[in-house]
Amino acid sequence: MGIVLGIESSCDETAAALVDSDRRILAQRIASQDDAHRPYGGVVPEIAARAHAERLGPLIAATLGDAGMGLGDVDAIAATAGPGLIGGVMVGLVTAKALAMAGDKPLIAINHLEGHALSPRLADAALQFPYLLLLVSGGHCQLLMVEGVGRYRRLATTIDDALGEAFDKTAKILGLGFPGGPAVERLAREGDAGKVPLPRPLLGSAEPHFSFAGLKSAVLRARDAGTYQAADIAASFQQAAIDCIIDRTRRALAAAEGATALVVAGGVAANQSVRAALVDLAAQHGLPFVAPPLPLCTDNAAMIAWAGVERMADPAFAADPLDFAARPRWPLDPDAAPVRGAGVKA
Ligand code: KG4
Ligand code: ZN
User: Fold this and answer.
1) 103 lies in a domain?
2) Is the pTM of this model over 0.90?
3) pLDDT over threshold 70, residue 240
């Protein structure tokens, strides 16, 4: 039994949560910065870092207050230590270090991607290692065998854009505003996915990697053609992206020996059409499909606290040192072979 305070600040959500080892989310708060970034059509790192610095302290105090707790009731402090926008990560990590020092609590430096990767186990106690994880967020698009806490084998990654990035850029091209993913999903419901011919990059290729840059360029050309409705472009884009994900994930399943489930996590896992397509794929392979509830898909602190709980449950657990440095890049599988064109992605 233990209670972990989780802190998340790697992108544009300032978040704190208290999670216990019985999978209970005792309290959680998220302050979105959407309004601050909307005028720029994307996240501005400097604005994000400043907003985290202003909001995080009061947000943590309010989260503890929601649970009727003080720092003394917490068993450990877990914070995202990377990868992400370095200014924001530093704000969260420094705050966690200060609390750990003041309260004499262990500090747990969490890889944000590990937070996403383990988040399905917070909601589903039955989910066992190993599982095949499709991790689709604004900065990442990977297929990973999750073999245990701290044990991740990357089977595939994107050679250019992340899937969430492709959604966001499509939203920008179609003038749908920010944040883009949910806006594209909404508009796609009103469109015909068969109207606009769009490419499916890497479909059928032997390795299960992803590519979305060509799809994004095709969306731009479709808009500039001036002959298509925006809703049809959105629907056609979403379908092309889903066709790619399904084909690539099917390929990875062939290499995912022993996987107990097909699992999706990360912001794009909030997309209902993406989820529905993965449900079918899992059924075709006779595997259970697991996806966290929507609030656990997009960035949140409960998944960071939960990753802390999982780390503490390891018999070999050791707290991280108070001089642990924030990491702008931090691959989950440092041994994965580099992929052509993928040098800029963590
Ligand atoms: O995991 P997340 O909150 O932050 C990162 O770690 O990147 O993911 C954010 C990404 C954004 O690109 C956002 O547009 C996308 O997830 N997203 C969606 C949906 N909700 C969020 N994409 C498609 N459909 C959605 N409903
Ligand atoms: Zn994330």
Assistant:
1) yes
2) yes
3) yes
